[in-house]
């Protein structure tokens, strides 16, 4: 699956996007976050505060318990501050 | 509805004219322009960089615009949001609503800005003498949005 990162989450992780093969036992956003956190301290820092994580799957906002599949594009970013 | 997410500046007069030319039925035009301030709290701001999610930004602005159109009798609507590096005094965002009467134009413009603040995928990073930092989202922005529910 394609993963995109924006703003502070992108800076903490150190790159804008990556592609992973989603393990079969991961079926929702929270599961993916737990999986990514195993990849290093940069991921742990990016996802440290779950109340400051916003998620979009295939360009639609979803909650952290939303199901995911390997064909999805998922984006992680902090609360928006436009305007 | 005219939606644009762009790096370039915009001209408010041109945008108003695009909505009002050849129209004699519009009794009200409301505009909101957001600008970069040179101070945030106690800190002097040297620049502000806006990051956005390109695949989503215009789509989300369009959704917010459609919500406003479904709620008020709006004749015309323009939403422009810039991204990239901006300086104090620069224009960031423009909302123009036109209607037969002022109430719909005022309300729709305010509604759009309140929703845009929390739902449009843009993030501000400020540069001060001490370095750069991401602007934190304000919890009262959610309260402002919720008053329309």
Describe this structure in words.
The complex is a heterodimer of chains A (83) and B (149). Chain A has 3 helices and 5 strands. Chain A has 83 residues and is α+β, with helices and mostly antiparallel strands. Chain A has one domain: Beta-grasp domain (Ubiquitin-like (UB roll)), CATH 3.10.20. A 5-stranded mixed sheet of chain A has the order 2-1-5-3-4. The longest helix of chain A has 9 residues. The model of chain A has no long low-confidence stretch (mean pLDDT 97). With 149 residues, chain B is of the alpha+beta class. Chain B has a single domain, classed as Molybdopterin biosynthesis MoaE subunit (Aldehyde Oxidoreductase, domain 3). Chain B has a 4-stranded mixed sheet, sandwiched between helices. Chain B has a 4-stranded antiparallel sheet with strand order 7-5-9-10. Chain B has a two-stranded antiparallel sheet with strand order 3-4. Chain B starts with a strand and ends with a helix. The chains are: A alpha+beta (83), B alpha+beta (149). Chains A and B meet through helix 1 of A and strand 5, helix 2, helix 3 and strand 9 of B.
Q: Which terms would index this structure?
A:
heterodimer, A: 83 residues, alpha+beta, Ubiquitin-like (UB roll), 5 strands, 23% strand, globular, B: 149 residues, Aldehyde Oxidoreductase, domain 3, 4-stranded mixed beta sheet, 4-stranded antiparallel beta sheet, 36% helix
CATH fourth-tier homologous superfamily of chain A? Beta-grasp domain
* Unreliable residue stretches of chain A: none
Number of domains of chain A: 1
Task: Give the SSE order of chain A as H and E letters.
Answer: EHEHHEEE
Q: Which percent bin holds the helix content of chain A?
A: 25-40%
Gyration radius from CA atoms of chain B, angstroms: 16 Å
Which two protein chains have the largest interface (Cβ within 8 Å of the partner's Cβ), and how many residues from each? A-B, 16 and 26 residues
Rounded mean pLDDT score of chain B:
96
Beta strand count of chain A: 5
- Proportion in β-strands of chain B: 35-45%
End-to-end gap of chain B: 23 Å
The count of DSSP E runs of length 2 or more, i.e. the number of strands of chain B, is 10
The CATH architecture of chain A is Roll
Strand content of the residues of chain A, in percent? Answer: 15-25%
Task: List low-confidence stretches of chain B.
Answer: none
Largest sheet of chain A: 5 strands, mixed
Lateral strand order in the biggest sheet of chain B? 1-6-8-2
Query: Can you tell me the overall shape of chain A?
Result: globular
User: Roughly what percent helix of chain B?
Assistant: 25-40%
CA-based shape of chain B? globular
User: What is the residue-averaged pLDDT of chain A?
Assistant: 97
């Amino acid at each position: 699956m394609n993963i995109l990162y924006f703003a502070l989450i992108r800076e903490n992780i150190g790159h804008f996007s990556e592609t992973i093969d989603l393990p079969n036992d991961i079926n929702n956003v929270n599961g993916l976050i737990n999986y990514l956190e195993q990849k290093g301290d940069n991921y742990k820092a990016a996802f440290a505060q779950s109340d400051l994580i916003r998620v979009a799957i295939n360009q639609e906002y979803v909650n952290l318990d939303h199901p995911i599949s390997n064909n999805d594009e998922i984006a992680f970013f902090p609360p928006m501050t436009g305007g | 509805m005219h939606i644009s997410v762009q790096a370039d500046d915009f001209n408010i007069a041109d945008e108003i004219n695009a909505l009002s030319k050849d129209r004699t039925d519009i009794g009200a035009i409301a505009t909101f322009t957001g600008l970069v301030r040179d101070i945030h709290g106690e800190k002097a701001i040297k620049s502000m960089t806006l990051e956005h999610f390109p695949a989503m930004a215009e789509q989300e602005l369009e959704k917010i615009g459609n919500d406003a159109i479904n709620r008020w009798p709006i004749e015309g609507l323009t939403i422009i949001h810039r991204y990239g590096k901006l300086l104090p005094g620069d224009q960031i965002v423009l909302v123009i609503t036109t209607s037969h009467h002022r109430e719909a134009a005022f309300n729709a413009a305010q509604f759009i800005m309140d929703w845009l603040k929390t739902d449009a995928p843009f993030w501000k990073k400020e540069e001060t003498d001490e370095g750069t930092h991401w602007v934190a989202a304000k919890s009262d922005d959610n309260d402002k949005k919720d008053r329309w529910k």
